[in-house]
Amino acid sequence: QVEDYRFAVSQMAQTSLRSIIGKSDLDDLLSNREKLNQGLELMIDSPAIGWGVQIDRVEIKDVSLPETMKRSMARQAEADRERRARVINADAELQASKKLSEAAKEMSEQPAALQLRLLQTVVAVAAEKNSTLVLPFPVELLRFLER
């Protein structure tokens, strides 16, 4: 079916390689080479079997990309990493807000706990040797003094 099987396999390999690389992110090219190698082998092997050629092994060793493509893929990878970092930060903020909510519920049941937390905060601020310390004045104390 094919006059020059070496040329045909070479052309199929190049076309398949371009296809795999075109569909991949820079991160995938760098970190998931084994998976890409398997996909490439399948793409080359299916038509080659019909030509009487068996592919034993396919491996991507080095990928040369134009400089503009490298910059574009690097920007895409950076944007993806930044997006993931924002999601992680948002999850951390959500967890922190839930813990603060739980702490507020606990402190509302025990007013003394709120006073102890206030004193801990004063101690922490005083340790920084600031010259001015502003303390919140409990409204309950004012009501007590009014009587």
**Domain unit count:** 2
Helix segment count?
Answer: 6
Helix content: over 70%
Q: Whole-number average pLDDT? A: 83
Q: Report how far the terminal alpha carbons are from each other.
A: 105 Å
- Describe the largest sheet: none
Structural class, from secondary structure content? Answer: mainly alpha
Strand content bin: under 5%
The SSE string, one letter per element, is HHHHHH
Task: Report Rg.
Answer: 32 Å
Q: Uncertain spans, ≥5 residues at pLDDT below 50? A: none
Short structural description:
By secondary structure, this protein is mostly helical. 75% of the residues lie in helices and 0% in strands.
Q: Topology, please?
A:
Elements: H1 5-23, H2 26-31, H3 33-50, H4 67-109, H5 111-126, H6 139-146
What would your notes on this structure say?
By secondary structure, the chain is mainly α. The chain folds into two domains: 1-64, Band 7 domain (Tetrahydropterin Synthase, Chain A, 2-Layer Sandwich); 65-131. The protein has six helices and no strands. The protein has helices at 5-23, 26-31, 33-50, 67-109, 111-126, 139-146. The longest helix is centred in the middle third of the chain and has 43 residues, at 67-109.
Defining traits:
147 residues, mainly alpha, Tetrahydropterin Synthase, Chain A
